[in-house]
Structures are given as structure tokens and as C-alpha cells.
Amino acid sequence: xxxxxxxxxxxxxxxxxxKMIKLKKSIIKRLTLIGESTIAExxxxxxxxxxxxxxxxxxxxxxxxxxxTGKSGTxxxxxxxxxxxxxxxxxxxGVEVKRNSINIGIQDFNNNFVKLEEKISYTLDNTRESLxxxxxxxxxxxxxxxxxxxxxxxxxxxxxxxxxSHDGFSYSYFxxxxxxxxxxxxxxxxxxTFLENDTRAMAIGEYYGGVVKNEKDVIFVNxxxxxxxxxxxxxxxxxxxxxxxxxxxxxxxxxxxIICHCGKKGCLxxxxxxxxxxxxxxxxxxxxxxxxxxxxxxxxxxxxxxxLSAITDNEDTLAIEIIDEIGSKMGRYLxxxxxxxxxxxxxxxxxxxxxxxxxRLPIRTSIHKHSLSLxxxxxxxxxxxxxSKAGVIGACYILRDKLFYNV
Length: 407
Hints:
38% of the residues are buried. The chain has three domains: 3-87, Arc Repressor Mutant, subunit A (Orthogonal Bundle), CATH 1.10.10.10; 90-203 and 391-405, ATPase, nucleotide binding domain (Nucleotidyltransferase, domain 5), CATH 3.30.420; 214-383, 2-Layer Sandwich (Nucleotidyltransferase, domain 5). With 407 residues, it is α/β, with parallel strands linked by helices. It is built from 13 helices and 15 strands. Helix 2 (15-34) packs across helix 4 (50-62). The chain starts with a helix and ends with a helix. A hairpin with a 2-residue loop joins strand 12 (227-233) and strand 13.
């Protein structure tokens, strides 16, 4: 039974074949979770019998998915063999699409990068030309990677906005026809394709490979140009009834006349986001405030990246004052989520979180001020350790879960 059979089987296969597929996926899942293991250890982890595990391991070795990694270090007696996943048996492709760039990475079967490229120039427009450009960039990256395309068993594309990851539809970008976007992209890159919301992918990246340790109830806050949250409950992503959970930034919080890019007025991200930071900063300069950037660029030329660099590299007073204001407001509204969900951990991610303490400290102070102390006193607030890599890493872990863990 080859790897492709494990992944692309139809539900009308015989019961015995379906059982074997599920058993093999269970063994693969345990080996990727706990690492190299003996037959006895796998039996204990899976509750399968020694003959069953021995048979499955033998077949997985023959298929090139598992290998004998040597004898265990057990003292005395006959030392049992240990078995582990072959890292080059297959690969995952993760793609994070931002408004002005793309991050792409390929991970091996053990979720280690073999190639990663960030900030590839790209403009996200809701046009067929932009979609075609995205697919061309992916194809070029795969061609340049040196990884055989036939060994890449899945691609996960992260996009912002309303993503139905179950059915493969995007309702914020590239919704040109009543056909799943995942199928359209798959037809152009020739790799099995899944879609995911960018914030949820970042949340999973931090959960499996970042700042999350043993916590099972986590809220990940993506504070970039916009604002979104990823919710992890009992160790699993929470999608909601229709799959659109996490649209925190489009809560109608403020009584202002600022039109959000969703088309409504007063959304949270009109005052608390990268877009808001840039707007407030430029308005302050127009009203006579001074910044280190004043002598370097015209107001129109200043970008969000310039403002963030002014904070982290030059401790620009004006920029710090505005990020402090944004953090205070964010903490106030995060306190509502904390009161509702009572999470163990809140993780701050996205481009604004890269300012570190300048955002985290006002958020923390505001949370303590506005949330119920009984709810928040044992909650931790941390900043992402994966940074800009969180989305691509999360995309690859999502592929692993979809293809091998859903048994």
C-alpha cells in the first residue's frame, strides 16, 4: 500500500483495506508525535497487538515511510529495534498570502523546513490576474526547491477573511465562480490543495511549534494590518458552526464614521490595527506632531513598516504614544474575550506584536484593569516566538493533521 493510497482512498474500499489504512495512519501519527519508538512502545500508545504493529511497521518500511533507526538503549537482554519516520518520504507545502507579499515554505515529513522564503513580492488583489500570479509564484518556488513535486503531498494556502476550510471556498478573495478556490488552485499547481484562514494557521503554528507549551485553551491574536483571532479549545482549532470563527476585528465597537475594508463602519480594526496605526500617525504629523521620520520622508511616503521600525529601532516618541493607545484599547476589548473563554494563554502575533513590550505592556495593563480578576489572574499573556514564520509553519501542521491525524 503506497503513500498515495493512504491519502487518496475512496470510502468504497473494502472494510479490511479501510481498517489497514486507519491502522497505518494511527502508527504514523504516534511516530510523528512521540518520535522514534519500539514495537512495545507503539503497542502501548495505540492499544494494538504486537503482531498487528509488527505487520504495519513491516509494510511501512517496505513503502519507504518508516525506517529501522537502530537498537534502543535498554540495558541488558536483547535490545529491541526502534523505528522512525523517513523525513524524505513526503513533503508539505505551506503558503501564507499577505496583502503585499507571500511567505512560502516546504517541510519534510518530520515538519522541518527544507526551503523557506519570506516576503516574496506580490500584490493581493481580488482579480483573476492576482490569482494567476499567486499560482505562478508557487510553481516557481517548487521548481527552484529541488524537492520532487510528486513527493509534495499537500499544499495549504492561508488567506485573510472568510475562509471555509472544509469546503475550500474563500469568500473574501478570488470568489469568481461557484467552485472551491482550493480546486482552482490545485488545477494550476498540481498539488492537493487546502485553504485556511491566516490567523487560524498562525494559531496552530504557535500551538505546535511556538510559544505554546502545555496549554490547551489558547486565544491567538493576530494584530497586523487588520485584526483576527484564532481559538484553540482543548487542543483543537475552534471553527464555529459555519467555519468562520475569529472575525474579532469586524466587531462593531466604535461609534465612528470610518469605513472598514469589510464595508461596515466602526469595526474594531478601524481603531486597533496596523491600518489604524498608520492613519493615526500620519494624522498626527499633519496636525504638527514631530517624528524621527519627518526628516526622512513625506507624510504620504511613510509606510506601516517605517512606523514599526521607528518604534523598535529608534524609540520614536510619537509612534510609541500611538502604539500605547492602540494597546490600551486592544486590552480593553480582549478582556471581554478573556471573561467569556477563560483561556490559559493569550498569544500576541502579527506585525504589530513585533514591537514587543511597546504593545504587550499596555495590553497587559488594560486587561488587568478591565477583566474579572478571578478569570484573568492565572492567565498568561505572551508574544509569538515564530513571528512572520507562524503562518507557514501552521499551514504545514494543518496539512499533517488533515492527511494523517484524522483517522
